[in-house]
Amino acid sequence: MAITTTPKRTLIVGNWKLHLNTSQASLLLHRLHERIKIYRDIEVVLAPSMLVLQPLSVQIDRRKFRLAAQNAFHKDTGAYTGEVSFAMLQDLVHYAIIGHSERRIYFNESLEMIREKVASAVRNGITPILCVGETKEENRAGETKQVLHDQITSALANLTATDIKKIVIAYEPVWAISTFGGELAKPDEVKKRMDFIRHQIADLYGKRAADRVRVLYGGSIDHDIASGYLSIEGCDGVLVGGASTNYQKFSGIVDAAYRLRYRDGVE
Ligand code: PGA
Question: Which of 221, 222, 245, 250 is the best mutation target for the ligand 1 pocket, counting ligand atoms within 8 Å of the beta carbon and taking the most?
Answer without folding.
Answer: 221
